[in-house]
Design goal:
elongated, 1298 residues, transport, four-stranded antiparallel beta sheet
């Protein structure tokens, strides 16, 4: 489109959306001519070549733009949601140095101020050799023909002038101005008024019409005029008495050169269309006829292979479209008016029972009513803005535009919301009138596609159904020559139905808003009862205001017979009657094929609804005449049924396909429902909301139009669109056996619309009742009304065998194969699967119980029903019922599977008491196997399955198996436990094992070790940690454990626990000798002593470590004393000294050491402790010194001597010798000898030698003297007593001998 010096280009996809489909071209210093823009495809071009060319004629140059052709492979991607790229994105401007891209032409003469801007006629086309040809009319009466070479050729552009006379002849006849370059105020008589071209395989023709009404045909190849005809010879003298308008139109229809049709339009007081035909290789022009029309101003004209389209400016400021078919033989040509969709009204009537805001929003945002441009402008004016592009409105999405409109309208302060919406509606209607006003035609000669171009977009011209064309005819103009075999009475009845519609609604049946008496009686949204009531009221109105019509009905002899053909024609399944040819009445629809087809279908349903209702009113009026009473009642019932069907179709088809609003909590449920249906909502990827009728087309994918063209067997777009309209009407029909409309609403999650549709359909229709009940149940199911859904599912099961195909299509597919069984059982199976996917256990239980009651024993679905029933009982934690159902199962595999699920459910829900109390009967071994397998597969630290297994065996009084379970737990904990909790649990497991095994009789109180001690847990049996293959394990023998061995393992586990509490790096099982250093370092001396005794280890390291602790406390600071209280508390202190007031930690430690030495009774331990104390240079405690002196004096003396305690050792030796030599006093038996004493003479000798080697000090000399004296005294006494003993022995011997 050329506007304001710009060339506006936009590409619209008929099957899909396109990206980058709008381009605006600006030519600096040049103005494009209105008729100088041509888009042509290069003949014979391949997909790799520049197969499209944009030819532009401007006031100073001709240009050729290259465009990529749409690749045929792109049609394979039409089913995807990714929009294709427009060819306008690849628009390449011409190179100024390329001869095939641009060429300058002479500029037009100067413009006279005040005169209309001259626009010379022009045309452009592509030749078979891919040459671009431009033809421009000059002001001197010639035609400038410019030829640009094909792309890639090195030829030069060629420019010639086509003329029929010389320059001298034109000068003398006044065709040429006397001074060239002077401004021209009016066209010359011989100058060209219109141009048109035609290119075929045989020749290239250029047709020109001059202002002196001479039509010439030029051969472009020979650059000569081959035919000329003066149109003045074809008109009457009365017509020629008035001059024509300076605007001329010349159009040529496609086809072979011998069958070209030309139309020339001349504007006299009445419009004249002169139809001509080219014959004999385009060398002869034959006049066919003249067509007259009483219209003043023609805006555009277009030709198709079948007829002529004309666009007129109406007297009321609007536009009208008319169509005339080419005549055949002696037929007369008549113009047929095109029924245009009415412009939106600036005011709407809001019924009292409806909300004004909702009514305005439904009216404004109804799909197809307002274009985006009108809404943008209305919002801009409402917000007092200036430029929509600067305001950013044009870049908004439809949803964002809607939100901003609502915010702007309802955000006004101090103004009623209804008034704000009314004002915005007035703005939108005003701009819609301007945007939707047709400007010109766009016709595709090859496919017959006809469109109207407006500022707001494109509008399709779609042929109407023959009956709709008949019903749209003006009242009183019907005749017997109709596409249906109607008799005169039937045609009369249809004419009267049109009159009743005008009476009821105040204007034509397909008009806009109602303004008659029935404006408040909206039959399109009323209920069935209200519809019947309104029909009786309309019959009374007919009797009141149309008595002549009633009397005319009495003239019809057999009224029921006349009504039946009309009812059959109203039904959407009726045949067309004749092929949709050139004699058609067209409807002006939306901007895309799908929206156009949907709009025509919805409009046709409204038309048929009004006709049906008018016919119903007529039949009710005729019923009062008591003629054909019984037959009329039957027809009234059928007509009412038809009205109800069309009312439901219209109401449902025009509703919006939207994604329902939902709370956050229901989003997950809704998405699960959509996954059950295996569909994606259409509303989630639409730029703007669409009606249900349009959504039904879009749901099948963008290739529906291509499929329709293949099904129609033709590439004629009128036939394709007509077939689509009929097919869509059939799909939308409520009583369609395929139930397509209900299935679509279900798949697209249009649940409110589906509920209303099904409830309304069930109230009056007997068709598809069970399928409708099933769809209603699914709608209830997905909206949360589970009980209603269950009732609908059970009712729909009654006819599952009769409507199997439809029900299986509505129900979700089942991936698993269906078992053999009846159709009703398979239906129940699919219903259960759908309810299971929606997580409704109560409904599944109800359906499964009903199915089990109706199923036979040999039905293959019984196992499935029992399985699903069992699973839902588990879901609801009804375990006792599940156990009873488990006992009734006959299938062993299914029973085991359900048992495993029952045990798993009890474990997962922590119902351990039920697991031990439920009567499993013969399945106890299976339960134990499940528990053991589950216990060995879970984490041994956090799990409690071994404890549960222990409780299960205890409940069965099987104590040995209970002990075996806890022993396995203890061993696994020893291998896998890594923390303190695991060690503590291992200790408890050993204790429980010992307790359970203690109950068993002594001969049977033994267990088999579950795993060998050297086995590692958590490692591969075939490879090491480095990935190397390990040798095959040696066959292991069973190891039997008795009670004492278990007690020893318990002690070892306690040691591990105690160390793990202090050292986190302790992992795995550690040998007892390796545990001793850790225990001693931690101060666990009681546990270390017990471990040493149990595993027959030496206790000496224990006393050494304890003595070291005592010495450290004696010498250490506060930190060591604070730590000592902890390890002292971990041991068993003497009961008498525990908690004594005033005792220090060192005293407590020495007391604890003394307590252990006394408890163990080993003299070597005293020596060890004494050696440890002396080694640290600390004086030994008195009690330790006394105990060592009494137990082993020799060792004590050696220790003192070796650790430098010479003075102490000498004093002890002196005291020992003195004690021996001191006589006993009191209680001495006469003649008795003291017990024999063994003095450490070697140690005393070493002491004496050491004293003799000391420095000559008085102290050492005194000790040495005393020691020698004591030793001498001891020796003397020993000698003396020895003599006495010998003498007493001799006397005793003599006495005995005597």
């Amino acid at each position: 489109m050329v506007c304001q010096g710009y060339v506006w280009l936009r590409e619209r996809g008929l099957d899909t959306e396109l990206d980058g489909s709008a381009v605006r071209l600006c030519f600096r210093g040049l103005n494009p001519l209105p008729e100088g823009v041509t888009l042509a495809r290069e003949p014979g071009a391949t997909a790799k070549d520049c197969a499209m060319a944009l030819l532009v004629v401007t006031t100073g140059a001709v240009l050729r733009f290259t465009l990529p052709a749409p690749s045929p492979s792109q049609h394979d991607a039409l089913s995807s949601d990714i929009p294709l790229t427009s060819i306008l994105c690849g628009l390449c401007p011409p190179d100024p140095h390329d001869p095939s891209g641009t060429f300058p032409i002479p500029p037009p003469p100067p413009h006279i101020p005040g005169a209309p801007l001259p626009s010379p006629p022009s045309t452009a086309w592509l030749s078979l050799g891919r040459q671009a040809r431009f033809a421009v009319a000059t002001t001197v009466g010639t035609i400038l023909l410019v030829t640009l070479p094909a792309p890639g050729k090195k030829d030069e552009p060629r420019q010639v002038e086509l003329c029929c006379s010389s320059a001298v002849q034109r000068f003398f006849t006044g065709w040429v101005p006397n001074v060239r370059g002077r401004a021209v105020d009016s066209p010359l008589p011989g100058s060209t008024a219109a141009l048109s071209s035609h290119c075929s395989s045989t020749c290239e023709l250029l047709l020109s019409l001059s202002f002196d009404l001479k039509l010439r045909v030029w051969n472009v190849d020979t650059e000569s005029c081959i035919s000329e005809l003066s149109l003045l010879t074809l008109f009457s003298s009365s017509l020629l008495s008035q001059p024509p308008s300076p605007r001329f139109w010349l159009r040529i229809s496609p086809g072979p050169s011998s069958a070209l049709c030309l139309v020339v339009h001349l504007s006299w007081p009445q419009s004249l269309f002169c139809l001509l035909r080219l014959k004999e290789n385009a060398t002869k022009l034959v006049h066919m006829l003249n067509i007259y029309m009483r219209q003043s101003e023609l805006r555009d004209i277009a030709l198709t292979p079948d007829g002529i389209w004309a666009l007129w400016n109406a007297e009321d400021g609007g536009t009208k479209v008319a169509y005339a078919a080419y005549p055949s033989d002696d037929d007369e040509v008549s113009w047929q008016g095109v029924v245009m969709f009415p412009f939106p009204s600036a005011q709407i009537h809001v019924p009292p029972h409806l909300d004004a805001r909702e009514s305005y929003m439904d009216y404004i945002f109804e799909p197809g009513r307002f274009c985006r441009q009108a809404l943008n402008r209305a919002l801009l004016i409402f917000r007092r803005g200036k430029d929509p592009e600067k305001a950013g409105i044009t870049a908004w999405t439809y949803s964002l535009l809607r939100r901003n409109i609502i915010t702007a309208v309802e955000g006004e302060r101090g103004v009623d919301t209804s008034n704000s919406w009314a004002r915005f509606l007035a703005y939108a209607a005003q701009y819609q009138h301007s945007a939707a006003k047709p400007l010109s035609f766009i016709v595709c000669p090859q496919s017959g596609l006809s469109l109207l171009l407006s500022a707001g977009g494109l509008s399709f011209l779609i042929p109407a159904h023959p009956f709709d064309r008949l019903a749209l005819s003006p009242t009183g103009s019907l005749s017997n020559t109709m596409p249906f075999s109607f008799c005169t009475a039937t045609v009369f009845l249809l004419d009267k139905a049109q009159q009743v519609s005008e009476l009821l609604w105040g204007e034509d049946v397909d008009g806009g808003e109602s303004h008659g008496e029935w404006m408040e009686r909206d039959i399109e949204i009323c209920s069935s009862l209200e519809l019947e009531k309104f029909a009786h009221e309309a019959a009374l109105l007919i009797w009141d205001k149309c008595s002549d019509m009633v009397h005319q009905l009495c003239v019809i002899p057999d009224l029921p017979t006349m009504v039946r053909p009309l009812l059959e024609a109203l039904h959407p399944s009726s045949p067309d009657g004749s092929n949709s040819g050139s004699d058609v009445c067209t409807l002006h629809a939306g901007s895309l094929p799908t929206s156009a087809v949907a709009a025509v279908t919805v409009r046709a349903s409204r038309l048929r609804l009004h006709i049906s209702f008018s016919l119903l009113a007529i039949l009710n009026a005729a019923l009062n005449m008591d003629r054909h009473h019984r037959l009329l009642r039957t027809l009234i019932k059928s007509t009412l049924h038809l009205c109800q069907a069309y009312r439901l179709l219209y109401q449902t088809a025009r509703s919006l396909v939207t994604l329902p609003t939902m709370s956050i909590t229901s989003i997950e449920v809704t998405m699960r429902h959509l996954s059950v249906l295996d569909s994606r909502p259409l509303a989630t990827h639409l730029a703007a909301p669409v009606s249900v009728a349009e959504g039904l087309l879009l749901a099948s994918g963008p290739t529906s139009l291509l499929q329709a063209s293949k099904a129609a067997g033709s590439t004629s777009w009128p036939q394709i669109l007509t077939q689509l309209c009929q097919s869509l009407m059939h799909l939308l029909w409520p009583e369609n056996p395929s139930f397509s409309l209900g299935e679509f609403m279900l798949r697209q999650h249009q649940l409110p619309q589906l509920q209303e549709f099904c409830l309304e359909l069930l109230s009056w229709s007997t068709q598809n009742r069970n399928v409708c009940m099933l769809a209603l149940g699914q709608a209830y199911l997905f909206t949360g009304e589970a009980e209603k859904a269950l009732s609908c599912f059970l009712k729909a099961a009654q006819a599952a065998a009769n409507e199997r195909d439809v029900q299986l299509r509505l129900l979700p597919p089942d991936s698993s194969p269906s078992p053999p069984g009846s159709l009703e059982m398979n239906y129940y199976r699919k219903v259960i699967l759908q309810l299971e996917a929606c997580s409704l256990p109560e409904l599944i239980i109800s359906v499964a119980k009903v199915a089990l009651e109706k199923s036979s024993r040999d039905d293959g679905n019984v196992v499935m029903f029992q399985s699903h029933l069992f699973l839902q009982l588990l879901e609801l934690a009804r375990y006792h019922e599940a156990q009873q159902l488990l006992a009734q199962m006959k299938d062993p595999q299914g029973q085991k599977s359900c048992l495993r699920k029952l045990v798993t459910s009890l474990l997962d829900n922590s119902h351990f008491d039920l697991l031990t109390t439920l009567p499993f009967g013969d399945l106890q071994l299976e339960v134990v196997s499940i528990l053991e397998s589950r216990a060995r597969s879970v984490d041994v630290v956090t799990g409690c399955l071994y404890e549960l297994l222990y409780a299960f065996h205890i409940k069965q009084q099987n104590y040995r198996k209970a002990a075996a379970a806890m022993l396995e737990l203890a061993w696994r904990l020893g291998r896998e436990a890594k923390d303190e909790d695991g060690r503590a649990k291992q200790v408890d497991a050993y204790m429980v094992t010992i307790n359970a095994l203690s109950i068993v009789r002594a001969p049977n109180a033994w267990l088999v070790m579950p795993l060998s001690q050297g086995e590692r847990g958590g490692t591969s049996p075939k490879r090491s940690h480095d990935g190397e293959i390990v040798p095959a394990p040696v066959e292991k023998k069973l190891v039997v454990l008795e009670l004492w061995e278990l007690e020893r393992e318990l002690l070892l586990a306690r040691c591990h626990l105690a160390l793990s509490r202090r050292y986190s790096q302790l992992h795995g099982r550690v040998r007892p000798p390796d545990l001793m250093p850790g225990l001693l370092q931690a101060g666990l001396f009681d546990m270390a002593l017990a471990l040493s005794k149990s595993f027959k280890l030496s206790c000496t390291p224990v006393f050494e470590a304890l003595a070291l602790k005592c010495v450290t406390l004696q010498l250490g600071g506060d930190e060591a004393r604070n730590e000592a209280w902890d390890w002292l508390a971990a041991n068993e202190l003497p009961p008498g000294n525990r908690g004594k007031d005033g005792s220090s930690v060192a005293d407590e430690a020495w007391t604890y050491l003394q307590y252990l030495l006394k408890r163990e009774r080993g003299k070597e331990y005293y020596t060890t402790v004494m050696g440890k104390v002396l080694s640290h240079g600390l004086p030994p405690p008195t009690w330790l010194l006394l105990e060592c002196k009494h137990r082993n004096l020799a060792s004590l003396l050696r220790l003192l001597l070796s650790h430098g305690r010479l003075s102490t050792a000498a004093s002890l030796a002196i005291k020992a010798l003195t004690l021996v030599t001191t006589p006993l006093t009191g209680g001495v038996i006469p003649g008795a000898f003291p017990p024999p004493l063994c003095l450490p003479f070697s140690a005393i000798d070493q002491i004496a030698a050491a004293l003799s080697n000391q420095p000559p000090l008085e102290h050492w000399e005194q000790l040495h003297t005393k020691l020698l004296a004591a030793l001498d005294g001891y020796l003397n006494k020993a000698t003396r007593e020895s003599h006495e003993m010998e003498s007493q022995a001799a006397e005793r011997a003599r006495f005995i001998a005597a």
